[in-house]
Input
Amino acid sequence: MAETTGPERARSAEQIELSVREATAGTAATPRDAGRWAAKVDRLDAVARDGVRGTNVAGRRLTGPVQGFGKMWQKTYRLSLGPQVTPEQAIATWKAHFPEFWPAGNRFAGALTGISPGDVALLDLAVGGGVKLSTGVFVLYADEESFTLMTPQGHMFAGWITFSAERDEAGTGVQAQVLMRANDPLYELGMMAGGHRKEDVFWAQTLTALGHYLGVPDAPVQTRTVCVDTRRQWRHAGNVWHNSMVRSLLQTVTAPVTALRPGRRTG
Output
């Protein structure tokens, strides 16, 4: 089931980001939820991993919706697992096998320890025509019932993706919720030209794969999309400089030459 609404009353992106900063910083000598929030980082470090190109991540800053360009959307993808699985079991499985649930052709290369606060994962995303978009994500938060990923400069969107599980009337429900703005004008055009639909399919397939692994193969995925802010933030149009799609295309074209250079660095 899909529902598109908006705009509706919601906290502004500025308020949401302030909440994240406050939660990360804490209000006392010991941060709230110590060990669950990642430490503050200025720029990302990226460790090369097998199976992905691993570019467009090292040295990038993190970006939330405040730093994005396009309209702001909140997308929620939800699936009911029934009473046989607890929220803790669902999230433990999701974190331990996260890359396995992604649609074919897409790669998520995270730390060997799984999903932990402060981890940087490298992504290769299929965009068609044999081209892979190389980017990454940062694990901002993780506990027994949820974890949140944040995007770097150049990613398709600026925002957060929160994966969670909780008890509902039918037992346990799992969901992926995305709060995002397209990072630059080129990505915004791409989202309007079918990118939103592709994203919906991506997360629906991911949740379906998770449900199948947990013994619920035929559960439908419910999708809800809300336009939180219809404005485009033209002051951030310059984000196009970091556009990972453009850079990935150039890296694909020049790969035979750069492969000959000694001491290549993930960047």
Summary: Strands lie at 2-5, 62-63, 72-82, 107-109, 120-128, 131-142, 146-152, 157-168, 171-182, 221-229. Helices lie at 13-25, 87-96, 185-213, 244-258. The chain has one domain: 2-258. The CA atoms of residues 131 and 177 lie 27 Å apart.
